[in-house]
Write a structure and sequence with these properties.
Blueprint: H1 3-23, E1 29-31, E2 46-50, E3 56-62, E4 67-72, E5 77-82, E6 86-91, E7 110-115, E8 121-125, E9 130-134, E10 145-148, E11 150-151, E12 154-155, E13 162-164, E14 170-174, E15 181-182, E16 185-186, E17 197-201, E18 207-211, E19 217-222, E20 228-233, E21 240-245, E22 251-256, H2 258-263, E23 271-273, E24 279-283, E25 286-290, E26 296-301, E27 306-311, E28 317-322, E29 326-330
Antiparallel strand pairs: 1-26, 2-29, 3-4, 4-5, 5-6, 7-8, 8-9, 9-10, 11-12, 13-14, 14-17, 15-16, 17-18, 19-20, 20-21, 21-22, 23-24, 24-25, 25-26, 27-28, 28-29
Length: 332
Amino acid sequence: MPNSLLLRFIAFLLFSLILSCSAQINNDITIIKNSALELIDKNSKIEVLGGSFKVSEGPLWDSENNQLIFSDVRQNKIFTWSELNGINEYIIPSGSTGYAPSFKMGGIGSNGLAFDKNGDIILCQHGDRRVASISKSATVNPDFKTIVDNYNGKRFNSPNDLSISSKGDIYFTDPPYGFYYNQKTFDDKFRELDFNGVFKQSKDGSLHLITKEMSLPNGIALSNDEKFVYVNNCGTEDPKIMKFNTSTFVGKLFFDGKELSKKYKGCFDGLKVHSSGNIFTTGPNGILIISPKGVLIATINYGKPITNCNFDTNEEYLYVTGFDDISRIKLK
C-alpha cells in the first residue's frame, strides 16, 4: 500500500475511534455509584419540551389525560404539556385572586401541586397565602376552596410545596418567597408569622408545626413508608436536606450540600422519592440522585439552577421544571 494511502487509512481509523469514544461520553449524566444504573442509563439525555416561562414549578403527572400539569409562579398560571397537544394554559389565575394581602410584584401564582384521593388538585398558593383545592379541569374562572390559611390566627407567608400521605394528611412548607424581594431581601410588609415553617395539616383538620428552625424550607416529600418526610432547605447559606419523623417530628440532617454549593449554581428546591427509595432532588448543577442512606449516587447535569421534578406514573421519565423551561429525562 502506498504511503499516502496508508496515512489516509490510519487517519480514517483514528477519526472513527474518536467518534466511537465521543459517543460514549454523556455530559448530561454523571454516575457516581453503580447502583444509580438501576435507575437511569448513563447515556440518557435531557429533552427540552418547552420554554418562555418565567418560573415554572410544581410538576404533576396526570395519568388520566397523559399530560404534565405545572405552575408558572410569576405568570400566575397553571399550564399543561402533552405529546399530543404541546403546551396549553390550564387554570388562570392559579395563586393570587385577592384572597389575602400580597404583592403584585414577585411570585404570586401557585407553586407545588398534588392530587388528592378524589382527583382534585391541591395547590400551594403564594399570592393567596393558603393551601387550597380545585377540580381538575381547565378554567379562567377558578373556584378555589381553602384547606388551611393560617397558623394560630396568623396568615401563612406563602405555602410553597406539599406532599400528601395515603391517609390524606398534607405536609407543606411555608417560606417567604411569595413576598416581593430584591436579591436576598424580603419585604415584610404583609408578614404575620415571624418564622418560616414546615407544617402537617391532618385529615381531621388539625394543624401541626413540624419545625420553625429551617431558614428557607422549600421542597418536601414523604418516604415510601410515610415514616419520614424529607425537606429541602433552599438558599446558599445553609443548603441541605432534613429528614423528619412523621410521628415525633424529630429531625436530623440527611444530606449536607455545602461543598456542592461552593462549586455549582442551584439550590435545594423541589424533590421527589422514587419507588426504590432513592431521592431525586434539585440542587447545585441540576438534579442530584441520593440513596436512602444519604449518599450521592448520580447527578443530572443541567448546568444551571432548576426548580422541581416529578415522575410519570410508571417512572418512565423524570419531568423537570426550570425557571424558563420544562424538560424530561428517560429513566429505566
